[in-house]
């Protein structure tokens, strides 16, 4: 076998190539045949008494040995003797001089030469019709012609004007500069599913490749939420017959863009994929590296250009029965992740099953994520081959039955029943105030100065007094009171007072423009607008009475002593009445108002209390959200209904990372809810030391 290997080294100049830098430029050098043959990288290992695990480990070790491109032979051959008639043959080659077709050609020629030498004959292989340099010359002539311009125009029209980056959710933060550390996750499609893939291809007049990549597009759509997806897929690059058996790297990736918008049916999906693939094949000769230059894309060092996911279907076959030998392929894991994700498949003619592997970047994904993704791909492909052609393709089931049950019934808590809440959250806060009036309810750290603190006793007295004043001003059951105050203890007092008065509050952001505030107030029919002195000067509306906290007692007609009298009854609250009104951002059109009932929020609190262990493990709550954001009320309820401390953080402090970390340590924060932009600014020490649990909204 080693003699046959040396014959091939002499036959193909690419196997004798090395690469060096000269004057700052890469330069290929091809060694004379006799020199390369004499230093061929071969080795024999006798492993007859070894376990297969140990043999496999040795094979992988030899396969992964690095190459010195300047000095080392770039192809190596290893033989592992397992028995008198059982051998493992490992051929490793650097991609710079070889591609898959080169490897298949190598195996075919190696067996032919070995058989001739074994029989004492002179090996006779067909003459090599061309060299790799002939391909480069042909390509230069092509690029100077009209066909190249026509193909370039196609690709520019085929790809979106703004090529979308594939937003797969990653297990680890994406490194600022792309890495190529990788691993492999192997899986096999069973014979039944493999047969249905062929049947679906015949039914819709598409290829097996098109069926497999269709399921891949659906998988990437489900994971990323994107309709526009670009998947790279390599072609052999050997469109000219004379280059069919030439050694070298000819592969050219095609950026296949699919638009999944419009709820396509299964039949429509396969039709779209067919058009995309056939269009790409008709224009495959334009080099991808030049296309990237022509597109003029902004360079993003953290990811590959144009596409970050690849699909490969190996269709070239080497006879598994040849010269009396039976060949069995061994799958070796790869440790390089050229793209975020690559799905590669081939059909084994011996078992008529598709053997697949996800190659992935280990700086982005964990192995368990890839195992889950492999099962999701199989589920989607299985559904694709079973449903009617008119079924919406994007609704095909990705989750298995056990996983769906876990998500829907297990993790959601749907199977757990809690008592129906019958006490509104402001009454729960009053109970805490009665039990421990001296405990700190609200803390408002300043950017530079000391924190302002309010105890539960103070919060209870002040909110009770303001509620009486609001009732005296005419605020009644079911009314909507707009509250536009800076984040402060007074804001918390006001919100509780509105609830105690039997009304619902509408939280507004003082930084919003006047016309937006007016629109939101009009939209909800708010008859009262509670603000500070600065807010009252900028807002006036005949349909809404403006009230500042300073002048509330004077305008109410109710004496301060009466207003704070604890013996005055507090109105009963209908649990199904609204507690507050929240608006959507309006990014998809006009903002929409959502009424949240007392029962809704009380029920949410009961779940938070149990799942987050609020009365035991999480007692100091960092509050970062804008009051007009729904998360704000969630933070307030979690903290104050459980007897904890609500730490109010303003915007100016939120983005001062060092100061924010100092506040978290000083206040003894146990938990917080962050948006991703804030989390990215926090150091690992801050996020892990100061936070018991974190959540991103």
UniProtKB/TrEMBL annotation:
This is Non-ribosomal peptide synthetase. Residues 4-407 form the Condensation domain. It holds the Pfam family Condensation. InterPro entries: AMP-dep_synth/lig_dom, CAT-like_dom_sf, Condensation_dom. It comes from Streptomyces haneummycinicus. Residues 431-682 form the AMP-dependent synthetase/ligase domain. SUPFAM superfamilies: Acetyl-CoA synthetase-like (SSF56801), CoA-dependent acyltransferases (SSF52777). One of its GO terms (cellular component) is enterobactin synthetase complex. GO terms for biological process: amino acid activation for nonribosomal peptide biosynthetic process; enterobactin biosynthetic process; lipid biosynthetic process. GO terms for molecular function: 2,3-dihydroxybenzoate-serine ligase activity; phosphopantetheine binding.
